[in-house]
Amino acid sequence: MKIYTKTGDKGQTSIIGGRVDKDDIRVEAYGTIDEVNSFVGQAAAELNADVFADVLADLEKIQHELFDCGGDLANVTAKRVPKLTEEAVQYLEQRIDVYTEEAPPLERFILPGGTKASAAIHIARTVARRAERLIVSLSKADSTTPSVCLQYVNRLSDYFFALARVINFRLGVKDVEYVRSAKVFRN
After folding, report:
1. In which pathway does it act (predicted)?
2. What's the alpha-carbon Rg for the chain, to the nearest Å?
């Protein structure tokens, strides 16, 4: 099987139910979801399974859900049924709560970084925020965009923030507070 088709050589790509220009907001949105997924994979590759078995299970689940989200965004058929569900959003909320309890209390903004895995998760977080902005733009252009994708990606960036802190905490690396930050988090 050849992986190149040459059908995109003139700047268009296939989506589920049609073809669009490669710079279409829909392609930008699901392409950015793919970027998030790649950074999740990079972070997972940095984690020790003995210390992070729970996190690795979460990240694999999330990678599948990101594929679902991308597919949902790429689908323009009239009878589309989103693969991504509200349960995925609720699961992220549960995990955010668990990780927030595990990490030390936080009052100020922190600098992204620490360990390699935490830094990769912070990158995934910021790319998820970009994906969120693109999904908002897509939703304005196409009111049939599945709302669960926006909810999921919004929650996912929060999950990544909590996870990045837990990764550093478990590895004994302190988060570095932004020195000019006011107290923005309440315990």
Report:
1. Cofactor biosynthesis; adenosylcobalamin biosynthesis; adenosylcobalamin from cob(II)yrinate a,c-diamide: step 2/7
2. 18
Integer Cα distance of 75 and 138 in angstroms: 12
> What is the CATH number that goes with domain 12-90+112-157?
1.20.1200.10
Q: Among 121, 152, 157, 133, which residue's Cα sits nearest to residue 38?
A: 121
What does the alpha-carbon distance between residue 67 and residue 180 come to, in Å, rounded to a whole number?
A: 38
Q: Where are the alpha helices (DSSP H) in 103-146?
A: 116-141
pLDDT per position as a tens digit, 139-187: 999 999 999 999 999 999 999 999 999 999 999 999 999 999 888 887 6
pTM: 0.94
Mean pLDDT for 34-53 is: 97
Cα angle 95, 146, 11 (rounded to 5 degrees) comes to 110
